[in-house]
Amino acid sequence: CLKKKVQSRSDWQMTVNSVRRTARAKVNLTLHVTGQRADGYHLLDSLVCFADIGDFIDMREADALSLSVDGPLAAGVPTDERNLVLQAARLFGADKGAAINLSKHLPHAAGIGGGSADAAATLLALAELWDLPLPEDVVRLGADVPVCLSPMALRMRGVGDELSVVPPLPELPAVLVNPRVAVETPPVFKALTQKENAPMGVVPECADVGVFAKWCAEQRNDLQAPAISIEPTIQDALDALEPALFARMSGSGATCFGLCENADSTKELAKTIRGKHPDWWVVATNFS
Ligand code: ATP
What we know:
By secondary structure, the chain is α+β, with helices and mostly antiparallel strands. The protein folds into two domains: 10-158, Ribosomal Protein S5, domain 2 (2-Layer Sandwich); 167-287, Alpha-Beta Plaits, CATH 3.30.70.890. It is 30% helix and 28% strand. The strands form two sheets. Strands 1, 2, 3, 4, 5, 6 and 7 form a seven-stranded mixed sheet that branches. Strand 9 (246-249) and strand 10 (256-259) form a beta hairpin. Helix 2 (84-90) packs parallel to helix 3 and helix 5 crosses helix 7 (224-230). It starts with a helix and ends with a strand. Mean pLDDT is 94; it is low at 1-13. Residues 83-145 form the GHMP kinase N-terminal domain.
């Protein structure tokens, strides 16, 4: 009788009909461009971590596949097949339906992988909802999609398909700043003239944000200067983050981050920046 009860309980647990996932913002603490393949894809070497803020993906079983987009930063995000959420769903090649809602809280075209994080969260949620294995070759959706499937910081190399574990990062209180300019990635890569650059150094094992910030400062984001040449406001965001231990642009911009001593200093810095730039997107957060 007990066995039957356990059996029926596990049967019930396997019937999932709605799922919610957070698509956390990805942050490139470093981003070295180490080469370019003959097919045009760039080779990267990047330490990628995740902020504790993100978009929300909610889905439930339905007869057909559909997507609605809402939330404070939904403006400008495509709701049709261009949306990476729908492209991620199509990659399963399954004849199944789901009603998906994407609530946008991250700015798009911002260098914090909004679309990639949404795609990765969709893949994980649909695998659960449809009880299917993850599709292979998810890097086809975008270089940042494989890393965004991870719950923790990783080193990303190749064209985004080579992921390796790094020592646990220290607590990383941080402020994210986007000066509300959308930056598309292809022109930034195009503006990078030197494609073969030195790789990232070895990620240190340390428990102190100050020591870690010094190591970050010795690394680079090779896309930062080209992005500033296209969108000089990025330099204003970096200047606003000057009181932080260390500041850099993430991805191809325009979002910049500043690592701070503790949570109180992130809140204080965020408040100061918001006071001076009420139209900017400014968030006090934590990276992990
Ligand atoms: P990355 O850091 O990976 O380079 P990003 O943060 O610069 O990415 P995204 O937010 O992914 O850029 O947006 C890039 C483009 O992708 C946008 O201009 C938008 O039209 C399109 N897009 C497709 N799906 C989404 C989505 N779910 N959220 C945001 N943008 C999306």
